Amino acid sequence: MLPLPERRYLAEALRTETVGGILLLLAAVAALVWANVWPHAYQSVLHHPVGPSAPLHLNLPLEAWAKDGLLTVFFFVAGIELKREFVAGELRSPSAALLPVVAAVSGVVLPAIVFTVANSGAGGHPGGWAIPTATDIAFALGVLAVVGSHLPSALRAFLLTLAVVDDLIAILIIAVFYSSGIRFWALGLALAGLVLFWFLHRRGVHGWYLFVPLALVIWALMHESGIHPTVAGVAMGLMLRCHREGAEEHSPGEHIEHLVRPLSAGVAVPVFALFAAGVTISSGAIRDVFTQAMPLGVVLGLLVGKTVGIFGGTWLAARFTRAELNPQLSWSDLFAVSTLAGIGFTVSLLISELAFPNDPELADRAKAAVLIGSLLCALVATVLLKLRNRHYRQLCEEEDRDSDGDGIPDVYQRDDRPADDQHQDDQHQDDRQRDSRPTAGDGTARPGPVTG
């Protein structure tokens, strides 16, 4: 069972992502309608230039601003999530992190292999191997919200941790394989800006009016350098401190994530989807997805590669190491979540454009394959999860039951819980009591009231 503070953080994070996922679904549908009913208007808006042309060549079409600018906010939040998972979440414990980390790595490697095999013959395009490797947590949670499925905290934690590691791998792939023509003067200045960002943050300097302009300069320099600018977002997210010090109620990273996550999930990602998901849908386009090597490789990578990779990697890790599946879950539950993780919308659409920058028609075919592959994964996962939905609902009700109304679920007040869980919750309660005490002028905590 997750410690109480981790469970509360998880619930808040996923609640925001769920709302964002629903907006993402609506944006994708709007993009498809717009691109197929008013195609000329859609293309005109996509390619409308905005921004200064000098000195950093930022006179970019709106499509590029969505891809390079808005997704930087998304990856900034992903960087904070990853840092927090390392210092306070599932990834801080090697035993707890092993299964989702192995699942994430396997869920990247096998889809790439499936795509490469499908594109190894004549007419294939192996350069798009990374397209089916990403998992979109917001889209997955949006699907769950729409179909009304429940997931117990153990499955939600597994899915979120898997997605966080998956995001890290995705940004490494983008930085290494989809960056070209490096301008070292701009890269050097961007790195200097990151060092200044880290120094000011570590020295306790506050003020959005200082950090936001600095972040924009770092982003512009990274964009000019030839490295994809979303790398700057991840780097700044990883630099934030995500552990509490002294009497802090929240760490700086947690506070900033709380402020920026709604912007990422509710604005940045849906607007990107509006500009990226508008592909022409016709009987010929759908036929091409299942008859041409490149789009077929994307569909198979998402539906087969992701599912088998995540499930198989987790099973092998549990079979040959000391890692164990949560006793509340069965392997059928994990198989369903593995299929759900095949929804690779946001980052897969981004990589589709990066993989074929000089062939818009091929990029559109890859996007159509991403949409169809994600839809198939969503449908299969919905059926599998619906079969267990009654069981999940019972688990969720048991986890949320609070008979005495004290704000703490009953499962965290039982004496039969594992000692490690009780210790972590007791430690968190002690921290809350300490942090709530008034402080003296020298910053030390005054004794609290003595009670009988």
Q: Using the 3D structure, state the CATH architecture of the largest domain.
A: Up-down Bundle
CATH first level of the largest domain? Mainly Alpha
Approximate helicity band: 55-70%
Count of all domains: 2
Question: Could you state the order of secondary-structure elements as H and E?
Answer: HHEEHHHHHHHHHHHHHHH
The global form is globular
Q: How many angstroms does the end-to-end distance come to?
A: 33 Å
Biggest sheet: strand arrangement: 1-2
What would you say about this model in short?
With about 450 residues, the protein is mainly alpha-helical.
Structural account:
It is a single chain. The protein has 452 residues and is mainly alpha-helical. It folds into 2 domains: 4-179 and 228-398, Na+/H+ antiporter like domain (Na+/H+ antiporter like fold), CATH 1.20.1530; 401-435, no CATH class. The chain is built from 17 helices and 2 strands. The chain has helices spanning 4-37, 39-46, 62-87, 94-118, 137-147, 153-177, 184-202, 208-225, 230-239, 252-276, 283-291, 293-320, 331-340, 346-355, 360-387, 389-400, 419-436; strands spanning 49-50, 60-61. A two-stranded antiparallel ribbon has the order 1-2. Helix 1 crosses helix 5. The longest helix has 34 residues, at 4-37. The radius of gyration is 23 Å and the shape is globular. Mean pLDDT is 81; it is low at 419-452.
Describe the protein's topology.
Blueprint: H1 4-37, H2 39-46, E1 49-50, E2 60-61, H3 62-87, H4 94-118, H5 137-147, H6 153-177, H7 184-202, H8 208-225, H9 230-239, H10 252-276, H11 283-291, H12 293-320, H13 331-340, H14 346-355, H15 360-387, H16 389-400, H17 419-436
Antiparallel strand pairs: 1-2
Helix pairs in contact: 1-2, 1-5, 1-6, 1-10, 3-6, 3-9, 3-10, 4-6, 4-12, 7-8, 7-9, 8-9, 11-12, 11-15, 12-13, 12-15, 13-15, 14-15
